[in-house]
From TrEMBL:
Alphabetical keyword list: Cell membrane, Cell wall biogenesis/degradation, Lyase, Membrane, Transmembrane, Transmembrane helix
Source species of the chain: Alkalihalobacillus trypoxylicola
Site (Important for catalytic activity): 258
Protein name: Endolytic murein transglycosylase
Gene Ontology cellular-component terms listed: plasma membrane
EC primary class: lyase
């Protein structure tokens, strides 16, 4: 009996060990399988990232970008320049790509490149030293200008009349084509109450053209490309925003018209957000001036009653559309407002902006400095 029990015990122990071994083998097999799957996923993700990184930034709507490569620049420094100028996605990947391809012989100088170039095309341009040609047409659009003022600047520098440029910009068939081509443009710009469909979408900057008198569409689309690239550059912030691109550009245009310094742009943005969160009317004077269509030094009580969806004294929320062409800093400020407690601000003639928490404080500030604007208006009218 004792031998039988002993044998039975040995058999059970053997079967238990066999079972444990099978379990271990299954765990090992599944672990290896999972690691293999993870490795494949990581490999495919890395491959797709590298493939995207070495490809063009925007092959559909390529934009010309001027860059300067200083003498003695390394591949790492060139990669940083290209990334900062929006020509590539990642400067570090560029550096490793150059090392992998064993490329060298980059030439210092000024270049006119495009966002439609991939790594190989950029490398060839920089190696061959295809220095930028002298532009036939150069003009600059300052930040914060109304679209009608932008049109006048373009007309002054080209053979196109302001009327012809405006006719193209307001052509609905052309606008529909642009909406199909640009992610930032939607049917909202076709609203009948919008004064200028592309207001706020034409980026203020210096423009260089190789032709002396490029087509109106070429000029417009060069300016649209700049704005689209800025939006793409900050896509993560845009996607996480509670506001649409149209609303963000509208806020940015208000900020641009009110602030002269970068610090004030972010603080004013914080004030605007505070008022929006409290369902307060924004009550900013530049929206009234835009609604009326006059550059006002002083906003009168009669002006404040001007009925327009742009008038933020009459209507709550963000206005129906942008009121000027904002620069990149104002657009970022609209995306990342400072965390402030202020609900009011007052811009002086000097550009200084004074902030306050209560309406009484704001009114006292306005009363103290209002005469500055009266004097500025008289001085301007006398010129």
């Amino acid at each position: 009996m004792s031998d039988s029990k002993e044998n039975k015990g040995k058999n059970e122990l053997y079967e238990e060990r066999v079972s444990q071994a099978k379990t271990v083998r299954k765990i090992v097999v599944w672990t290896l399988f999972i690691l293999l799957i993870v490795g494949v996923i990581v490999g495919l993700t890395g491959y797709n990232y590298i493939k995207s990184a070495v490809g063009p930034m925007d092959s559909d709507n390529p934009e010309h970008v001027e860059i300067t490569i200083p003498i003695g620049s390394t591949a790492s420094q060139i990669g940083t320049i290209l990334e900062e100028e929006g020509l590539i996605r990642n400067g570090t990947v560029f550096r490793y790509y150059v090392r992998y391809k064993n490329e060298s012989g980059f030439q210092a100088g000024d270049y006119l490149l495009t966002t439609g170039m991939n790594f190989d095309e950029l490398i060839n341009e920089l190696k061959e030293g295809s220095i930028m040609e002298d532009a036939e047409l150069i003009f600059t659009i300052p930040e914060g200008r109304w679209l009608v003022d932008m049109i006048d600047i373009i007309a002054e520098n080209t053979e196109h009349s302001s009327e012809d440029i405006l006719a193209v910009i307001e052509d609905e068939e052309y606008l529909l084509q642009l909406i199909d081509r640009y992610d930032m443009l939607t049917d909202v710009i076709l609203d009948d109450e919008i004064k200028q469909p592309l207001e706020g979408y034409l980026f203020p900057a210096r423009y260089d053209f190789m032709e002396e008198n490029p087509e109106i569409e070429v000029i417009i689309e060069s300016m649209l490309n700049r704005t689209q690239n800025i939006i793409n550059k900050h896509a993560e912030l845009v996607n996480n925003s509670e506001y649409s691109v149209h609303e963000l550009l509208t806020l940015a245009s208000i900020i641009e018209r009110e602030a002269q310094t970068s610090e004030d742009r972010y603080m004013i943005s914080g004030v605007l957000y505070n008022r929006l969160e409290r369902n307060m009317r924004l009550q900013v004077d530049p929206t009234v001036a835009y609604a009326i269509g006059e550059h006002l030094y002083i906003t009168t009580f009669a002006d404040l009653e001007y009925d327009s969806p742009y008038n933020t004294y009459l209507y709550e929320g963000i206005p129906i559309g942008p009121i000027a062409g904002p620069g990149e800093d104002s657009f970022i400020a609209a995306l990342q407002p400072d965390d402030v407690e202020y609900l009011f601000f007052y811009a002086r003639v000097s550009g200084e902006v004074l902030y306050s928490n209560t309406y009484e404080e704001h009114e006292n500030i306005a009363e103290q400095y209002r005469q500055e604007w009266r004097d500025a208006q008289e001085e301007n009218s006398g010129e």
